[in-house]
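Support request, please re-run this one:
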Amino acid sequence: MSRIQSHEELDVYKMAFGAAMRIFEVTKNFPKEERYSLIDQIRRSSRSVCSNIAEAWRKRRYEAAFVHKLNDSEAEAAETQTWLDFSVKCGYILLEDGNELRQVYDHIIGKLVNMIHRPAPWILKRK
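Re-run finished. Output below.
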């Protein structure tokens, strides 16, 4: 692992940010009546994956706090998958696009779980 200076350099953050931006673009085509329900929910949860990774990065002095925020990020990723399922079932997203985004979130969740189970490489060492 090379020395990472910012959460923005983490592969999992890059993936989550890219997926959130893709969801933002896709939801522009949702019906207007979904503006304050499904659109808001899926955008909020997808963005929360990123923000919780950023918070975890800043809390890496303390393993428990770091892991807690990564757990929050994992939960938000799973919530995003649920909203994707609703989006497909409602016919707002094509099945293929929904499946592709779901797989991206599966990959994000996998990376987060690995960090949760092995936090030591990420934790700041006290001098």
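The chain is about 70% helix and 0% strand. The mean pLDDT is 95.
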